[in-house]
């Protein structure tokens, strides 16, 4: 074994020999790369050990298939997990570099849209921390989620260029390539059916090691990149037609060029379906090659391989695995189905009808002619085995990916207790009836390494001083903080930590955006994708109403509040974009009102991403989780806030329900209708009108928007929003407004009692241990995958 040199030597060696710079001429990026390589060396040591051990033991492996991984930056993560923070800081101090600036120089890899992608990233880290042999598969998008800019309050999208910046984390594997076919035809000879694709591209592997806590284990995130099989059309080249000669490469690369930025509506685009098959087939080829290397009989697959589908996006894994087993390995069809089902399981992340995947059967059949036949056979077999069945995997000329995933999975899971119950009574009602043991719950979690230890070092330090460091990979140990919460002196220190975090954020906002805010205000934060069901417009309506009240009585002792928003809207989701613009317009008016602006300010920070979340969450006082009940499958931001000592104002939706159970009802500001009440209220005629009539504050706030108070010169700018709220108001903003208002006034009162608030915040931290993604992963291992830890 090679002896690991001190970090300092390693950094200098890499600076000189890997980067080719001497310390005198190195720029920030060079130091960042040198430090990354030095840390990476140690990650690789852990990685090789883990790989060898998995191979030796012949243990079952977990494969996580996801179209998205919202990983964020990796250098700090590696440093924290390998406990190199002090050493890294000392090295950078010696080189007269600020470690914080070096870490922040890394591009933020945004290969995902939101919750689903971030969950995949937390899961990868937890899989390594708990020592479960696992591989993540995804796509190496050249461009991740767009960068958001505001121009006169409106969202402008810019391409994101993370790959054009240097980073140290991936290893190209040119020898690991698979052919991925599309289109063509199917024929049957001597009873054997074969698919002959018309077009083929290659998927090339890029590996990123993912290290767990203390470097005890590391797994692989393998991302696929599109390549042409013959990068050059030689014939065209020899004829001097260079554009045509390069065309195959350009076409192949298109597949992994860009992440689809719309996570709200399924659009049925051909390229998206190609991406899904590209990821899925490349992953399956890799899984089977690895299995064949070590084992003999494909009938053993379910014993050795667990494949988790992150939503329906890789649902084609069912038919493709059956195709490989049946068409290529000649396993009888029904047995092939059984083997595939034994390996596969599926996680549902949304019940919103517009986000459920279905594909036009003619598009599907053109691109995947053999798979559509297999789907029909799976469907027929399933119908035969379940004669009372009425719903098919194909209806209205569409292929239903949810139905397919359910039928091809041995377990199907929801992501919070409420969501799982709703799955049983709504989208999967019939299938649940036929397979009552298939649906299980695995409430989401977040990794405490990134979301507490790394992003909130002050709080992490205070906790470790009180209860030791065991909490880092056993988060429920946070309950040992309870006695300290009863100690006034300790609570003062807890409050000081929060205050320091808020001051740091205020300084950063002043430097970065010239926004000047008082760190003693209540920092009220709503950060998430923009969506009507998440109801950012409910939040801004309340701000308008509150502003009016302060204006009427500026002499009263109001609790000063800063409302912070962050979030991107899908480029084609015009309503969500209007809400962004409205919030920015309202901010411009309210922040410039000299009568009220010591009591109320509103800011919308542009380009919300993982790194910004890491800055904001430790500095938050209040977590806004205000979705229409029944619509947010789980939420994971909600867990990060609670863990970092920001109590929730929220509805009984998704994991809010479980957060409230854990932290205690008295430490959670509940408001709004339940999921059941929501369904009933929708049936009430003119529910919005009635709610508006009953609440003059709401009526006045809507009138202000409608009158053009926030859009001078263009009074009708927000008539679409006001019309929607006064009309159908599908997400029941008006019906929940009054209770939301009441809850916010309770927040004001509670925050004014500094000790009481500190107790509430600290109890949120002490009682959030259950929301670790380590707990979630152990749940998947035992209830779904049948996989063990090799630690
Ligand atoms: C949907 C679609 C629709 C088709 C086109 C591309 C695309 C990309 C992503 C999605 C995902 C939407 C589902 C989603 O992100 N759900 C979120 O999952 C989180 C993790 O389980 C959960 O905490 C959130 O509540 C849930 O909204």
TrEMBL record:
Respond yes or no to whether keyword Cytoplasm is given for this record. Answer: yes
GO biological process annotations for this chain's record? glycogen catabolic process
Q: Which domain of life is it from?
A: Bacteria
Task: Provide an example Pfam family for this protein.
Answer: Phosphorylase
**Sorted UniProt keywords:** Allosteric enzyme, Carbohydrate metabolism, Cytoplasm, Glycosyltransferase, Pyridoxal phosphate, Transferase
Quickly give the catalysed reaction: [(1->4)-alpha-D-glucosyl](n) + phosphate = [(1->4)-alpha-D-glucosyl](n-1) + alpha-D-glucose 1-phosphate
**Which InterPro entries does the annotation name?**
Glycg_phsphrylas (IPR011833), Glyco_trans_35 (IPR000811), Pyridoxal_P_attach_site (IPR035090)
Q: What is its EC number?
A: 2.4.1.1
GO molecular function ontology, one term from the record? pyridoxal phosphate binding
Report the main location listed first in the record: cytoplasm
NCBIfam families xref list:
P_ylase
Q: What is this protein called?
A: Alpha-1,4 glucan phosphorylase
> Which source organism?
Salipiger mucosus DSM 16094
